[in-house]
Design goal:
Helices cover 76% and strands 0% of the residues. The protein is mainly α. Helix 4 crosses helix 10. The longest helix is centred in the N-terminal third of the chain and has 35 residues. It is globular, with a radius of gyration of 23 Å.
Length: 282
């Protein structure tokens, strides 16, 4: 028995070491972007893997240049507005939809649930030109107008996770609330919503990471003369004939990555628990 425990302990240690080394592989690209953001742009291409020294160190010049050339503060504002509104809409409407689909079992709800699942496998490239045309016709080329578009594309995964998580939620509490005279909306916000909190956090972070880093959808839908998100603003650092200010671009990429990485690190435990509950129990 003792030998088995020792063997398991050794295997766990080896697995931890292997996973630690693998994590370094994923962290290394971010480290490369970070160190190059403090180099003079002429040395980024010449010595991309070298640490900054007295000759190559540029200080915060790259950050100042990038912020000035891209109007980065406004890009952060529009990215934040779009992300917060879109994630809020996805969480509210898809959780209510999943609750209804899970509790009302009939042919229509089963068909609708399957359609949500099917939407997850439809490539964006198949609908992007039609979507862009409809968005222009309906005037959805604003930070508020793009929210329903994100709601449509994010609903499939969100409904899938919420629906699966609902499988573990006790129906008795909802029935008790209804017996006491509570209406469906009151039952949802008073009883169901607190139970869904772990899944809310996981779905919210997954959707926020996608929307914050998304380039193609805002590029197709938004009025770029007035509104630019962070990925679009960074792309504008390209000059004529394909020239790129690599120093400023690296600096802006660091500023773009930091907020979403911080949120992810703070809430990563909820992502694992919420996704596992939604996938396994569903």
């Amino acid at each position: 028995m003792k030998k088995n425990r020792t063997a398991h302990s050794t295997a766990d240690r080896l697995l931890s070491i292997a996973m630690g080394l693998l994590s370094l592989v994923y962290v290394y690209p971010f480290f490369m972007v970070l160190i190059n953001s403090f180099k003079k742009k002429i040395y980024i291409s010449r010595m991309p893997f070298a640490l900054p020294d007295e000759r190559t160190f540029a200080g915060i010049v790259n950050y100042q240049t990038g912020i000035q050339r891209t109007d980065f503060l406004m890009a952060i504002l529009w990215s934040t507005v779009i992300t917060v509104l879109s994630v809020g809409a996805i969480l509210l409407f898809t959780s209510m939809c999943a609750w209804y689909l899970n509790r009302v079992r009939n042919r229509a709800t089963r068909l609708l649930y399957r359609l949500f699942i099917l939407s997850m496998v439809v490539p964006f490239q198949m609908v992007m030109f039609t979507l862009s045309k409809i968005a222009n016709l309906l005037g959805l080329n604003t930070p508020v107008g793009i929210v329903p578009v994100y709601l449509g594309f994010g609903a499939g995964l969100a409904v899938f996770l919420f629906y699966g998580y609902m499988q573990s939620c006790p129906v008795a509490m909802e029935e008790s609330a209804m017996i006491d005279g509570a209406k469906p909306l009151r039952v949802f916000f008073s009883v169901v919503l607190p139970i869904l909190q772990p899944c809310f956090v996981s779905v919210g972070i997954l959707q926020a990471m996608w929307i914050w880093n998304d380039y193609l959808l805002p590029y197709l839908v938004l009025d770029l003369k007035r509104y630019k998100t962070i990925p679009i603003a960074v792309q504008y650092l390209k000059g004529g004939y394909g020239s790129v200010d690599m120093g400023a671009m690296m600096a802006m990429l660091v500023l773009a990555i930091l907020p979403i990485v911080a949120v992810y690190l703070l809430c990563q435990k909820y992502i694992v628990s919420g996704v596992m509950a939604g996938a396994v129990k569903g």
